[in-house]
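Quick one: examine the sequence and fold tokens given here and explain what the tokens say about the fold. Here goes:
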Amino acid sequence: MNSWLPTVSLRCSCVIHPRSEDFNIKIMRYDVILLALCVLLAPIAPAHSQTATDELIDQLRRDALENLNPDSLGAGYAAMLSLAVSPDISAATFYPDPGAGIDDTRLKVFKLPIRHVFNREGEGVRPFVQGLFAYQTLDAEFNVLIDESIRSDWRTVGAALSAGVEIPLREQLSLLTAVTFGIGRLQNEAVYNGAIAENFIQPALAGLAFDWEARAHVYGASIAADYRRKIGNFDLEVHGSLTHHEVKTYDSSNEFIAFDTGTTTVDIDVNSVHPTSLALADAPLSLVLLVGNTTFLGPNRDALDFDSFFELGAAIEADVSARGWRIKTLRFGAKAIVGENVTGWSLVVGHSF
């Protein structure tokens, strides 16, 4: 959960395991339709003439258009794009439990934030800008029958630029606000294995459920608070942020792959930094205890079938200020993640100026 805070951090290799059989990413819920189609087609496919085959394919496509929910699918697609460009959510890998004919599902996000703060050492308002580059993949295999499957891959490339200000309210407390503009490209490609998948499902659903691409704008705003205080022999850090994104397609391969929706996220981090007597290469080391929560709000809060998760972990922080670098501290650690329908872990890499 990288917040709009003075401490800039990049988190990577987060693995999240949804653990409920109800976890069905909304963009995958046509697997039930695919299974039904294969069961119906299996005994009759070889006997069809080309004309009858074309008529059947047309009927399957019409049925898919009637059964697939564009609003539900759009919310899932928008959640993916928002996840890709949001600076408030860690880079992650999601592994849903196999079920309902879906295997080997994996959603991976990697982000590289680059931030510059103006008037860093001065008093008063400190403006900042941040660029974010993201790459996201979603892979899933639909095993609809023995020797009949579809391997579907979604790829998202995104970039976002944010500008904001940090406003000191008192010595320990700062308020941060920012606005964000981003763009994203979401593409799906599928590989069809088996006679039914190749001859019926591919022509029926290509360009509709599979094999399409879309481009979208992402607009957002956030407000955050940063509280730091020394209590006894340790430092307390409390970070909280509220972020809202609007995601809207401006170009897509067909009108069915179009969405215009919003996502809202609340992030809270509570960290305590405890000095130790240890040092690494003359850099004093501290133990950092990490606790956090991410909660999604709004009507699409469960677009990925979980709307909240907690984080608990620890890190080692090295004080490198004596080296004369612009970076004052380096932080490395790990977190466990748990929530309704989701578990996992993450690696944390951070630094502060």
